[in-house]
Specification:
The chain is an alpha/beta fold. The chain contains 11 helices and 16 strands. Helix 3 packs across helix 11 and helix 5 runs antiparallel to helix 8.
Amino acid sequence: MVSLLDITETEATLLDGDDLVSAPSVQDLFADLSEGQRAVALLLPASLVRARQIEVDVPLSAGAPLLITHTHVNAALETLRHAAEGPGTACLYCAPLGFALDGRRGHFDPVGQRASALTVNAVTLSVSLKALMPLERQIKAAGGTLVDSVTPHLAVTALIPSAQDGAAVHIGHNATVVSVLAHGQLVATGTARIGARHFIGDVMKAFDLTATQARPLVDQFFDPDSSGPLDELTEKVIRARLEEWAEHCAAILVSALMVSDITLSGMYADQPVLRDRFRKTLMATKNGSQPRIIEGAASRRPLLHGAAAVLKGEGPIAPQGATFTLAPSQSRGRQVIDWIQAHF
């Protein structure tokens, strides 16, 4: 049986069926597990995944326009995937946003049309294999076997209620992941490299505190009803980071002009202070529009549950045929792990 593993700076968490178990390290986590439970799929840290949009031009003919076939489109998608990869890098996801035929752009199926050049614009997710090595060694040293992987950018799409249209923003310990769906396709995604630890770290640095001392102050800022408001200086430090976080997330969302619903989950996502700041920033960024912000599922570690849905093929992002996607799959994640184990 394969379980899902998430590793952060502070703990390791395992999703085994519907059960969640956390411990300070992978070694501690695996200490009480049976041998049959040590095959794991890794929820990749957002910091290791590169999310971007790329575009490639594929010449088809130097003379008369050619009739475009599935073979031409598949070749263009393979060119895209290679463009997303570099030395020691694997492309885990590559799906087109649109095509252009001889410079004429649009959201259409190019198969059956004639052109001399085909241009494809796509969303890609790639991962550094070298950066994964320490995690793979950590799991192996604890007695586990890494058999698969999934990116948080795909996992978060499983948190979007409609599974077709909308955006999801998940605030993790180290970073925040943002993904946007339109008609069931991933059209924008990215990482805001601000997570819960940055709020705590700012307070630690400003007032020379330990993490244990700073964490309650951050909690108090986001939930003032629990123990009253903070002093002005502490509030100013935390609010500055909150505004930066909101601006980074809004910058990723701004390309998706038609987003009406945004699912917010993770650390402090249920607190009005964070949601109100996010809403105001979005309104300023998106010319006064006001998307509806939906509180994400109340389950503990929702991103792990989203990753499980992706690996089971139950998430909104699924293969739709070679013509339109080199979609995420267990086999691609498995190839990454095989490459690491073969080369290092």
